[in-house]
Amino acid sequence: MTYEEIEESCPVCRRNCNCKACLRMHMPKKSSPGEDVMDVSDSERISALGYMLSFIGPLVKQLNAEEQKEVGLEKKRTEDNAVEIENVELNADERLYCDNCNTSIVDLYRSCPTCKYDLCLVCCQELRQGEQPGGEKADSADAQSNKRNGRECFTTADNSLNAQERLMAWKVQNELDIPCPPKERGGCGSSLLSLRRTGHIVIEELVADIDKVMHDLHLNSSEPAGVGAGIGLTGQCSECSAIQRAGLETHKYLRLAARRSGSHDNYIYCPSVLDIQDDGLHHPGLHHFQKHWLHGEPVIVKDVFNRTKGLSWEPMVMWRAFRETTKNKFADETKTVKAVDCLDWCEVEINIHQFFRGYEEGRSHRSGWPEMLKLKDWPPANFFHERLPRHGAEFISALPFHQYTHPSKGLMNLASKLPPEVSKPDLGPKTYIAYGHEQELGRGDSVTKLHCDLSDAVNVLTHSKEVKLAAWQLKKVEGFKGNESKDFKKASRKSRKNGILESTTAILRDSCQGLNETRVAENAVEKQSLEPSSESGRTGADNGSRISGRLDMDNKQHIAAGDEIRKDDVGESWNMRGPSGGALWDIFRREDVPKLESYLNRHWKEFRHLGDELLDTVINPIHDQTIFINEEHKRKLKEEEGIEPWTFEQYTGEAVFIPAGCPHQVRNKKSCIKVALDFVSPENVHQCIRLSKEYRLLPKEHRAKEDKLEIQKMILHAASSAVQELKELLETRIPASGVGEVE
User: Fold this and answer.
1) Of 465, 488, 485, which Cα lies nearest the Cα of 477?
2) H or E segment to which residue 541 belongs
3) What residues have CB less than 8 Å from 479, skipping those under 6 apart?
4) What DSSP string runs through 179-198?
5) Which UniProt keyword terms apply here (predicted)?
6) Most exposed: 161, 221, 438, 640, by fewest CB within 10 Å?
7) How far is Cα 610 from Cα 538, in angstroms, rounded to an integer?
8) What is the pLDDT of residues 53-92, one digit of tens each?
9) Quick check: 141 and 100 in contact, CB under 8 A?
């Protein structure tokens, strides 16, 4: 072989070697895949930044109007209309939150000079209108038990006042002055709240700068965000609309995902990465993507790993890169992981090697019922690039539309505009590893339940593995489903709950029974790789309904799915129609959310969650993430409300783009490894604002309550960065032909 032939074949030279040393090697910045496509011309940059400002400019103006209104009210309190606003010095990486509704504060707010209680402007407005600040559900906000600034907040159990009494105790004085809330609400009740500002960005000056640069670009800076007029992207995609009118089932660039009558968006734009390799801002593929993205439609890109180095995403390869044999800060994390058992949605601890073995071979409860485990956000914390650097670089290079998805250099990604010194939200990459089976079990399915992300997201299926079940397992599952269906329809709600608990307990009880001597002898190899059995409690709250006798996963002997299967007893794969995807997605349209919520508010008592018990309460049927809409409920949803989601299978190597504001759920049909990254596009930033307002009204202990994205701060920094860059570009007098249009 010649030197060139060796270099072309060498895994080290090709940067896809799977040895531990190479897997731990950090990619040099200059050779990181995908970096070269981030370079764009000045005219393209002007066009893109003007496009971005057309969406976020109106939001900056809206924020400025709210602040000016508060300043105007403050002027009325003084005789000479003079207002002195104290500037608060915050570290660049310091976050400031409203003490009442937990919303992040980006500029103007009110604060108590005595106890430092901070209140956002929205809560101030609600108080003046006689409303409960933070929404009617915010009363459960008192379920915080922490100490801030030397004073103790009351918990719900300690506080005997009801919501109305508390609301009456906190009133505006003279229709203008807002006192610090009483001690029962976390304040001191002794001082008036004064105006303060963080002072990082002067919003009033920023608005003037936006108007000027938009005028220079001949764009309307007051255009409502999300409309897209004047930027060449209004109206539906004519190409896809023509294909849909023709009634074609398949097309090179489209995938049929719904059958809504009279709808223009039943197809999902689904190009191959080979068709959009040129990530230039004027590339037709990006323009086509923007047409659909602007209208809140998901997009699928196929074959994303066709332009990468070919690094393996096999689970054992990832485990090899992740594991530690020496003592360091990660040593304990590499031995065991916390997984969620989809049967009762409680956490279990399992040896990481055993988890990955179950991923490839399957695991079953002693009863034969398939055991569905899943990891979320693994590796833990924010160490994806530190623990799996080569996989992190491979993932970023595989992402399509880098101008949107690149976490640090994406020109159209608002998250990339945050200065280095400013605290940033955790947007990933995050890994989701889960077992799965082709058929919907109806009990313990491997699913991500219905929810709505606060930002845009792209999810890539990097690996999948089909695990076959034995024929006797199939019979057990089918028999259980048939009997349960008959009993469930006849029983009352109380009987249903008791029946569900009994059947789930039976599955878990059978899991705890020891193997008989014969079975142990037949499965000696499997037993050697498992640790001794010992009883242990189950971690994870289940509202007091603990299923006793469950064994800790790391110390529990389970059977692999293939155990005790003779050659003539092996059933065929549940997929009888040829190769299937690894995951089944349901993504709902934004405009269908009211009808979806209406249906779920009527039927929520029919869904199960913790302990596999029927739900006892629902705060928000989407944001709670406690509901999975199975095939039966999807059928009823269409009958009662006339809506259906985009439903499609995700294949290995496909990237699914989910717009902010679209509720979605996923069922794993195979064992799957998915890697996801969040980003914030200008087209959907108004949806991020809408969702942050919805999250604000949730109780303080709700899983979705925290304002993790801090979207207003991101908008201000993105607008400031775009204005500054446009000023510099326009000063050079470069012809900006095509400005405001993405050709």
Assistant:
1) 485
2) none
3) none
4) BPPPGGGTS-SSSB-EEEE-
5) Metal-binding, Nucleus
6) 640
7) 12
8) 999 999 999 999 999 999 999 888 777 777 888 888 887 7
9) yes
